[in-house]
């Protein structure tokens, strides 16, 4: 328990240290470019808003696709709705900057509506983040169809309600009104500075604590989610120091939010590539298991015949293909005397010897109990015989002492060779002829190599 707590503590310390480093670097960067803000101010904020809108749409589609691939992870849907709803409200924010492409126009900017959209966007995202974290705890529990529909409908209704309330509170509707900014003086009201901003900060801190406590930063996905919560806390804290919507804090907060969201996208892309890499490794492992013998890790019978058929399609007198069929002599006596476990060790030892005795382009396979076969492309009969003799002599030189018990006694092998020089010969005929040569080797005394004639 102490080690677990220490590990989790180190993980949290590393997370907050990384956040501190990022915020420090960003603040230093912003301090360098702050002198250019007055010249860029007419269009900087709406430009950053458009970038943020695109980033949030990207994340929303990304989360929706992940949910579509694994519908048991319903918490992804809450995050997808959070960013999709945020993108809609960001589009509403842009409607308050009608002349942003023309910085010298006379269009009136509605800063109060922009702040209302900002407030409601933060409330909606923080609540959905908290909901997603809570739903994460249910990922291993099968949900009933009714509960599943209830959760999805609840997420949709909440998001739609927040967007509707935002529209009603803004100047687009006369039903409700909320004053957060004085459009004439562009000063933030007391309601924003002393009430709304504080509530938003507390809400995001609650989302951060919930995420840290439940997910324990177990992977990059939740690390990026926790980082986003910290970013919004810092963004809102930055606005506490400003009472004017066109002050440095106004641009600082939006630039910070946009940059942080871009980092989240990079983290999500890293997650995608990591999943692809793991999936690719699992596929490779599964493929290797399907073409290899489980005991010896040599290629299996089906892969050998497939490879031999492919090699025979390009065979000619100048590019012969040799097949060596091998069988351990008196192997049944090994199993009967020392047991099948010892017999398996003998097979593994011989398999390793075969793999070490051939070229990378050659194929060593196990096609029977103690029967092995070698495929040697571009190898004439005489060269194949030299390979077989080398393997035979090497194996017969080992005993119990030199193999540290892997061989209970000296083992010998009989080998038959057939070399194909025409594509008209089939794979089955090649193996059959090499097999006849191997049986001739056994019939004439074992522990020898015979070439089919």
Automatic annotation (TrEMBL):
The chain crosses the membrane at residues 12-31, 43-62, 74-94, 114-138, 150-170, 190-213, 220-240, 260-278. Pathway: Purine metabolism; 3',5'-cyclic di-GMP biosynthesis. It comes from the Bacteria. Its EC number is 2.7.7.65. Signal peptide: none annotated. Pfam families: GGDEF, MASE4. Its cofactor is Mg(2+). It catalyses: 2 GTP = 3',3'-c-di-GMP + 2 diphosphate. This is diguanylate cyclase. It comes from Lelliottia aquatilis.
